[in-house]
Design a protein that fits this description.
Length: 146
């Protein structure tokens, strides 16, 4: 895996990252740090990447487990150290998983497998942060109204 990060110029603190797969992500700093608030902060990108990594795992595991999963949302709340390096010290993941007749024990197992075995990002983050998670299930068993 590769990427390139380039500062866009002398004014401001906006950076463009190009991934090895050819996608571009903008990042910017806070105004008090010279940024112009044009894009997410780099540490926000770390957090959202971790959310994407674990949500991906949960959906894959649920599908492989024969669950009729229709949606998966994960909300992350974090705390960071007050002094440099300002690493994440706590991260809570709250999953909202929707589908038809989802089994709570299977959803809980999928989340645990992601955090303990598959999600490289959350496993790395766990080196500095206390990781917790919760979940809720939304049953989409009722037919949609016309």
């Amino acid at each position: 895996m590769e990427c390139t990060v380039r500062w866009t110029g002398l004014s401001g603190m906006t950076f463009l990252a190009e991934t090895g797969s050819g996608h571009v992500v903008a990042m910017d700093g806070a105004p008090e740090g010279g940024g112009r608030n044009l894009a997410p902060r780099p540490m926000e990108v770390v957090l959202l990447g971790t959310g994407g990594c674990t949500a991906y795992d949960v959906v894959v595991i649920l599908r492989k487990s024969g669950q009729d999963v229709r949606g998966c949302e994960v909300s992350l709340k974090s705390e960071r150290a007050e002094t440099d390096p300002k690493v994440f010290t706590k991260v809570h993941f709250h999953f909202t998983v929707s589908g038809r007749n989802l089994k709570a024990n299977v959803v809980e197992r999928a989340i645990k497998l992601s955090h303990d075995k598959y999600c490289s990002a959350s496993i790395m983050m766990e080196k500095t942060a206390e990781i917790t998670h919760s979940f809720e299930i939304v049953d989409d068993a009722a037919p949609a109204a016309i």
